[in-house]
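input
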Amino acid sequence: MSLHLSKCFFSLVLSFVAINIQFNCAAQEFESVQRLTPTQIKADLEIIEEAYNRIHPGYSRYESEENLQQAWSDIRQLAEKEKGLSIEQFYLEIQKNLVMIRCDHTKAELPKILATQRNSDPVYLPLRWTFIEGRGLITEDLPLKGIQSGDEILSIDGRSLEELKAKFLPYGPVDGFTEWGRAGELSASYELMGGVIDNFSALLWNIPPVAKLEIKSASGSLRVLELDRVVHKEWKSLQGDSTDFDGAVSFERIGESAAYLKVDSFINYRNYVDPKSVFEPIFKALKKEKRSKLILDLRQNGGGSNDARLELFANLITQKVQPKLDMQVKTLNLDGLRDYLWTWEKRALKPNPLGFKKNKDGTYSMRSFLDDDLKKVKPRRYAFDGELIILTSNSNSSGSTNLIATLKSHADVTLIGEKTGGSAEGPTAGVLFYLTLPESKIKTRLPLFMQYNNVKNFERGLGVNPDIEAKTTVESFRAGKDVAYEKALEYLEID
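output
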């Protein structure tokens, strides 16, 4: 999963000054509440470059160290040329560099001073929408605002959606070369505080509190609507759907022999529930009722906690399987960086060498007894052994792609839907460090492990391809058709 500073805020803090600072050919139209000197920027860059180069196991997986080194140098040169950078500019430059690493777990978080403002300055569109076939479609009826589900957004504040997508492409993180995985985050992302377009528009431009949207209806009529933007808390309440495992699982029976299981998230660290208590009754019912066909819908699942994923995995295999072949770290030496790092797994800050085996290339492999993914998983008592269909989408990444890729290699499963994001080979993930830069207070995410999934084959830098492609189209969405689900029913010969 913006950093807007409103005119109202500036009237209380400092006078608005029209400036034109060039970075990446983009103009910053307002002064930041905090401006960093070249010396401060240089100090932060020394820390972040060393930390990612030394610790990140996928730092040069998809991009050369030379190009990354040049990108950090470019920020230094920009800061010298401009005699400093605003905190917004510095955040954007850091985010752009981290995106070059091509790891969806590698990103910069909004500095606290700017994240706090997101609940005082309205910068978010007051509606739910998404990208389908590259077009921005509204996904809910808002009769009081003259909007219907299926209406298409053509432009926002005079900027076409194509222009906005192209503008923000360098700032949206993605795993490997799964460019299609960016689609979902463009309009909505909890990690980016509202989505790529809202978040970065408010960093680059002085966003007005009233958004002007050019809308095209399904019938082709054009109109311009003015909508009051909302703050972050209001935006989150508009989204409705939970991102936690608690409440993300639904189950229903189909006829006498089939069933449908939907799991929208594996995130199980905020509102923890025992995954076994969630899945065991479902799979027990499948076994007891002798249901031989199961549609598993993971299309909204971007990943999350290992416990929820592994419990589902154990209910879908019929023999012992080791989910991951290896989990490697680049270094065990965190000296000089430890003061800037935080993680929920405190042992990672001072890793015990006895827990790792040194490899010939200088990396270290975690010993198998230390992580459940490196142990063989036994099938659960009521594990499903019938015909399994998994519905996939471009929203799959991280843990959900890991699950799909591993099941595809070790179970009788047919994938129906869209190609996924994430990495079938295995992402850089697991434990995350949070690196806080001392001068700017910008916080970034730094994964510790390179994971290697137990898969028979993969394409470098890509997720998983469906066996049967079934894409949501603008036409099918407007008609209320679930193409992948209907294709699954047809494949299983369910009326």
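quick obs: The chain has three domains: 7-107, 129-239, 249-491.
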